[in-house]
Write a structure and sequence with these properties.
Length: 197
């Protein structure tokens, strides 16, 4: 039996035992499982299916008649709705994180103690790995930013060098053209002078 606040939750084997011993109701696990499944009488708590104490009396009734079965299903459905609501309220108030629960385990069993220590060690290692990974990611991001700035600087310098080279080439060509024009005009001037004389 699991007691959660005021709610008592039982596994199927426990219900069979209670019905046999306290109420002298002869049944077995298969019958109770089948009835609970047909009536949808299960509550899941911490990933385990339980049957609430309030529903046990409905599992002893004959559900062969359709009207009785429907009535029991609606009754169980309303009871389970309120039970699920109470369970969620209880969990919000009192549920502790799994790691805290593991740390609180105190046992004399060496195997259990070893498992608890291993789990705690693994959680610490996982935490450290996450921190290292995050730090590496941050470092890589910084490196990427630095490389982007360097690339931008290289692009700017390259463009400046290209512009300087182009200006030099243009100046050199202009000088060549000016020299050619000067020579050509000098030649033309000397030819005219010779013709005049």
């Amino acid at each position: 039996m699991l007691k959660v606040g005021e709610i008592q939750l039982y596994k199927v084997g426990e219900i069979v035992k209670i019905l046999n011993e306290k109420f002298n109701y002869k049944t077995n696990s298969q019958i109770i499982c089948r009835k609970a499944a047909m009536l949808n009488a299960y509550v899941t708590y911490n990933d385990i299916r339980y049957i609430p104490a309030d529903v046990i009396s409905h599992l002893t009734k004959n559900i062969r008649q359709r009207e009785i079965k429907t009535y029991i299903q609606t009754t169980i459905e309303s009871q389970l709705a309120s039970i699920n609501k109470e369970l969620s309220i209880y969990d919000k108030k009192y549920k502790i994180p799994p790691i805290t629960a593991i740390k609180r385990i105190k046992t004399q069993n060496a195997n259990t103690t070893t498992i608890v220590k291993a789990v705690l060690q693994l959680t610490e290692e996982i935490k450290n790995i996450k921190e290292q990974t995050q730090e590496e990611i941050n470092n890589k991001n910084k490196e990427i930013l630095i490389l982007k700035k360097e690339i931008q600087n290289i692009k700017e310098k390259t463009q400046e060098n290209i512009q300087i080279k182009l200006l030099k080439e243009v100046k050199a060509k202009l000088n060549n053209l000016n020299n050619l024009i000067y020579k050509d005009s000098k030649n033309n001037h000397s030819i005219k002078w010779k013709q005049n004389t």
